[in-house]
């Protein structure tokens, strides 16, 4: 009797998870890209060599266009820009829009340059790093 209950609960949870992954609508703010179970897709990408990833990205570009969103799991996605002009526009001309980092406030108080978000704190830390630590007279010491 107890084994039937466990079996029914397991089947219900498995079907609910399958429904969530297969029928969940993609985020309309993200660019199009391959769909599937995020963790399994990430493992599939990690197993490829550099040449295989390049060929896979070329085939994805033909299917989805020059900007691709690849789900990594949870609320995280990898955005890949496969066009030189679009990459230049995003990273150089509109670089301040994409310059920020994910918020890691529960982990750290963001008091170093690698984890600080783009803003006044980051600019102060960068200024101190360049003019106090990386100045030529310091580097010669």
From TrEMBL:
Q: Which Pfam families match?
A: p450
> TM segments?
none
Q: Enumerate the InterPro entries for this protein.
A: Cyt_P450 (IPR001128), Cyt_P450_sf (IPR036396)
Q: Which GO terms describe its molecular function?
A: heme binding; iron ion binding; monooxygenase activity; oxidoreductase activity, acting on paired donors, with incorporation or reduction of molecular oxygen
For this entry, the protein name equals: Uncharacterized protein
The organism's lineage is: Eukaryota, Viridiplantae, Streptophyta, Embryophyta, Tracheophyta
């Amino acid at each position: 009797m107890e084994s039937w209950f466990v079996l029914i609960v397991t089947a219900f949870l498995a079907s609910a998870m399958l429904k969530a992954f297969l029928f969940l609508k993609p985020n309309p703010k993200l660019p199009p890209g391959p769909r599937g179970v995020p963790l399994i897709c990430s493992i599939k990408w990690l197993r490829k060599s550099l040449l295989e990833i390049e060929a896979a990205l070329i085939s994805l570009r033909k299917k989805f266009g020059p900007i691709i969103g690849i789900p990594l799991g949870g609320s995280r996605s990898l955005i890949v820009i496969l066009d030189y002009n679009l990459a230049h526009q995003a990273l150089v001309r509109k670089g301040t829009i994409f310059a920020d980092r994910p918020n890691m406030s529960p982990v750290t108080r963001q008091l170093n340059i690698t984890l600080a978000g783009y803003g006044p704190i980051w600019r102060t830390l960068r200024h101190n790093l360049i003019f106090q630590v990386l100045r030529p007279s310091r580097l010669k010491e």
